[in-house]
């Protein structure tokens, strides 16, 4: 049996940009992607702390060490610059494997979105 489990989480980052006229996705600082084990093109869930919105999109790699968190395309309507969000990646794995699996959890500085 396979189950879906938490693989990666970037907890409480601030939205730095929202670009309605860009092809849909979320642009994430490359250093945050690496720390959280999220790859470009991966499907992620976005949870907006400010308004309760929950939606899915895919990841685009942003410039390293900039703190960039940019919602693009239609997702830009679900956030405002300055909102605090959680970015979650999931993985399918065998039930027994999932019992031992440890997700990659990242808690960046909420003001700068940079790792300490």
Short structural summary:
The protein is mainly beta and 116 residues long. It has helices at residues 30-36, 95-100, and strands at residues 2-14, 17-19, 25-29, 43-48, 54-62, 69-72, 84-94, 104-106.
CATH topology term: Barwin-like endoglucanases
Order of helices and strands: EEEHEEEEHE
Strand line-up of the largest beta sheet: 2-6-3-5-4-7-1-8
Mean pLDDT: 97
Roughly how many Å is the radius of gyration? 14 Å
Q: What is the helix fraction of residues, given as a range?
A: 10-25%
Number of domains: 1
Quote the distance from N terminus to C terminus: 39 Å
Q: Roughly what fraction of the amino acids lie in strands?
A: over 45%
* Helical segment count: 2
Low-confidence segments: none
- Main sheet characteristics: 8 strands, mixed
CATH class: Mainly Beta
CATH architecture: Beta Barrel
Looking at the structure, what is the overall shape?
A: globular
Q: What's the β-strand tally?
A: 8
Written overview of the protein:
There is one protein chain. This protein has two helices and eight strands, in the order E-E-E-H-E-E-E-E-H-E. It is mostly beta strands. 11% of the residues lie in helices and 47% in strands. The mean pLDDT is 97. The longest helix has 7 residues, at 30-36. A hairpin with a 5-residue loop joins strand 4 and strand 5. 30% of the residues are buried. The radius of gyration is 14 Å and the shape is globular. The chain has an eight-stranded mixed sheet with strand order 2-6-3-5-4-7-1-8.
